[in-house]
Write a structure and sequence with these properties.
The protein is of the alpha+beta class and about 100 residues long. The protein has a single domain, classed as 2-Layer Sandwich (Alpha-Beta Plaits), CATH 3.30.70. About 45% of the residues lie in helices and about 20% in strands. It has three helices and three strands, in the order H-E-H-E-E-H. A hairpin with a 7-residue loop joins strand 2 and strand 3. The chain is flat, with a radius of gyration of 20 Å. The termini are far apart.
Length: about 100
């Protein structure tokens, strides 16, 4: 949720003069926004930077202040492990029922 013009950004003062480091580079803006929100939900300031390369499709970097880099990696990796597990479990469940409906009645 973005602060209104009357509210101050809680991360603004903290991140103004810091070096930002890419924690993830993605092609999908929705995924970049999800990572940014995930990091902010875990009290890690994050920004999105778009790199528009002439020869390639634009990529979006999710960047954090250098001192948050390790924690940000852990948060993103934890989310990815959870998503991979969910995908794997869902695929296994679908495989268990792949023969349903094949019988002749």
């Amino acid at each position: 949720m973005r602060p209104s013009s009357r509210e101050e950004d809680p991360f603004a003062a903290e991140t103004q003069e810091k070096d930002f480091i890419a924690v993830a580079v993605v092609d999908d803006l929705d995924q970049a926004r999800n990572y940014k929100q995930l990091l902010e939900d875990n009290d890690i300031p994050a920004e999105l930077k778009v790199a528009d390369e002439a020869d390639e499709e634009p990529s979006i970097s999710v960047v954090v202040p250098e001192e948050y880099l390790d924690e940000a990696h852990i948060v993103i990796e934890s989310e990815n492990v959870y998503e991979d597990y969910f995908d794997m479990t869902l695929d296994d469940d679908l495989d268990d029922y792949s023969d349903v409906g094949d019988e002749d009645y």
